Amino acid sequence: MRIPSKVIEIADDIKSMRIRGASRIAQAAALGLKISAECYTGNNVDDFIKYLTNVKEVLEKTRPTAVSLPNALSYVMSRVFKSRASGAGLRELIEVTIKAAEEFIEYSRTATRRIGEIGARRIRDGDVLLTHCNSSAALSIIIRAFEEGKDIKVYATETRPKFQGYITAKTLYEKGISVTLIPDSTVRLIMKKIDKVFVGADAVAANGAVVNKIGTSLIALAAQEARVNFFVAAETYKFSPITVIGELVEIEERSPLEVVSEEFLKTSKNITVRNPAFDVTPPEYIDAIITERGVIPPQAAIIVLKEEYGWALKDYMLKATLRVEESL
Amino acid sequence: MSGDFKYYKVIEDVKYGRIQSATEATLAVLSATARYINEIDEVSKVREFLKQFFSEALEARPTNALLMNIARGVILTVKDALGSGDIVKVRKVFNEYYRTTVKRIKMTNDTIAQMAVNRIESGDRILTYSYSTIVMKALKLAKDEEKEIEIYVPESRPGLEGLNTAKELGNYGIPVVLFVDSAIRYFMKNVNKVFIGAEAIAANGAVISKVGASLVALAAHEARVNVFVLAPTLKFSPETIYGELVELLEKEPESFISTERMHKMGLRINDVFNVKVPMFDVTPPEYVDAIITERGLIAPQAVTFMLREIYGWPFQFAPIRKLLGD
Asked: Which end of chain A has fewer beta carbons closer than 10 Å to its terminal beta carbon, N or C?
């Protein structure tokens, strides 16, 4: 059976970035599976699985680096495969697909809010906080704490090269939360005034290492030195299952023009401008990762991965094993 | 005082960071002092000028130990001549001091650069931060000696001194990697040495330098990369022996984010929103492997030893604020 045109449309929108942002991409992908299941007109279990797998691959290929995308798909597919393994019929499989997709979309929508509720409990009245870049999960925590009536003060790094710290400052300012903007280079100096650090994540690896905006690991290091608690706010769909089989999370390097002007590049000699977008914070600098499922130590990332992405893990492990067997 | 405006212009340049390096700031202040002393004939005016001018210069850059030490030198040198009321005498002793001091600063910097080069090997990848006159000298010297080096330079916000450093080194034929300050830890794995300059060195070996330097030292310490601070003993701050704290300056918010940009974003500095732009930070001695001075390479904890050599034991020197008060 052919992939419904509505699903092709979703895939195109993700590819062309009309749909963007980790959460929205993930929700759109789950919706793609849901629509596909609803539109299925065949009458064969094996055919349905083949068809759905095909849809999944099309959606997965749209943005190969965004970890939330394959995770959303795995969330749904793992439940479908589980039902099939326990002998479910076609009607039941379609229902499971729709239900799993809806469940994912719902949980994605509420995850950020849940993180806010859980994380806010870590904030005490009078706390001075530091945040880096512009993380909706981290901001959810800070805003929630403020709305609970806690008297807080926030330092926001400007976050070179693209100044996402301005957006953070603006968001907090509009809520009436006291915020001070600082250069990234001042975080060690400022750290003495800070009680807690809250940052977001672009990916969480199997060992609990957190991939996030460049500079995060430097802040974590300075926090560790000053014995300031360092919290990462991350929805479980930001945990990366491929890292369980040893895959590295690729660090994207972006254009030098984000760092210096064209004029500077033209008039300078022997200079290479490097612009890594992310860095990796080792788990030992992270006090806890705040997920919508609860607060976990970073070293327990594998629990989240096993619980949320069991199917995906089995699949990856199988593929890895097959590769080894082939090479023998 | 209004007629003296041209002499005071340098203070504005120092205050607003138009003159970045501590050495250049000190030389500029000294040169303006020389102009005044050689152009103005009344001794009483010279006396008032020195008091006013040095006080304002130190206020503009209270962290600058070199400036503090040089100001002390000038005052102690011309004190007796000022008492005699003879401008010719004042000029004679001052000009002699001026000539030898400028020469001394240049010579000590050359000596330090040479010693630093002894620590540089072909194949070294060195990280430097902000813009340091002495570090630039050392790196160019290493290039002259045909040592193959690559330099890693953070841009150093908000002043962006790193861009000048990168450009100057690049033009000299040294390959440079430039990146944002946030990437300091990311690139620390790629380098094997750090060379930085200093604004002042406190009695306990703590290094006062451009803000972010302590972050560099921390990341270097974590990665077991050696940190060298290049500083003449004239940057040692004897005042700190008596427990005086080094005062850390802040820059204007405008130097960091333009008012126009803030307003565009709907942000206004008030009791909810603020901008903080510290100029310097303090690197603790345990993150510094060595301070390279013109008298040799020392552990930062041995700064007191060096101060004893210079100022005797018990220490004998006149605190600058006391001198300016008299």
From this structure: C
